[in-house]
Amino acid sequence: MIAEDLQPLSIVENEGFRNMVKLLDSRYQIPSRRALGRTIIPSIYSNVRNKVQTLLNDTSFIALTTDIWTSINTDSFLTITAHFFPKGQSQLKIVVLGTKKLDQSHTATHLEEIMTSELNRWGILNKVTAIVSDSGANIKSAIRLMNIQHIPCTAHKLNLVVQKALYLNEDDSVGDESNELDSWGIGFWGKNKGN
């Protein structure tokens, strides 16, 4: 409940919560905030991590998606998600491998170090066949430094096209004189040149 509903560990100390649990089952002993933080949640994390590791060990090829995002309090994070089929299974598995806070500049070298470290921690660097990301120069360069194929995110590119189109009015035209989208990595925008 704490993880699913994003509740603080201190909820177990709240009078209303304690009364509700007592009403549901007066025999249940609510764990302390300390027990939750030091024993129960780390144990759950360890169990889930072991299950994910087993699935990753049981596959030969993994594709990743990654993105850099900013929290509401302007902290930057890099999240890496794995997509794969365990051997003998036909259902795609998707797991978040990690979210790392970016305390340094978002250079390609720094991003490559973080991603390589995370993939080595899971023991899957040699299984990664491609990484999907937006078209940011830093993340593309980081993936290139890893010698892994980069695939630009189609949804991100489509979003950029739609955003640009929404700013056009009837009198605007996009063509040879407007290469702004090309600088965003969208080369198909514009008039059909030479045809």
Amount of beta strand: 15-25%
Main-sheet strand order equals 3-2-1-4-5
Major β-sheet annotation: 5 strands, mixed
**Rg computed from alpha carbons, rounded to a whole number of angstroms:** 23 Å
Provide tags for this entry.
alpha/beta; 5 strands; 6 helices; five-stranded mixed beta sheet
Give the topology, please.
Elements: H1 15-24, H2 33-57, E1 62-70, E2 76-84, E3 93-101, H3 108-122, E4 128-133, H4 137-145, E5 149-152, H5 154-166, H6 180-183
Parallel strand pairs: 1-4, 4-5
Antiparallel strand pairs: 1-2, 2-3
Helix pairs in contact: 3-4
Overview of the structural elements:
- The chain has 195 residues and is of the alpha/beta class.
- Helices cover 39% and strands 19% of the residues.
- It is built from six helices and five strands; from the N terminus they run ααβββαβαβαα.
- A five-stranded mixed sheet has the order 3-2-1-4-5.
- Strand 4 (128-133), helix 4 (137-145) and strand 5 (149-152) form a beta-alpha-beta unit.
- The longest helix has 25 residues, at 33-57.
In short:
This protein has 195 residues and is α/β, with parallel strands linked by helices.
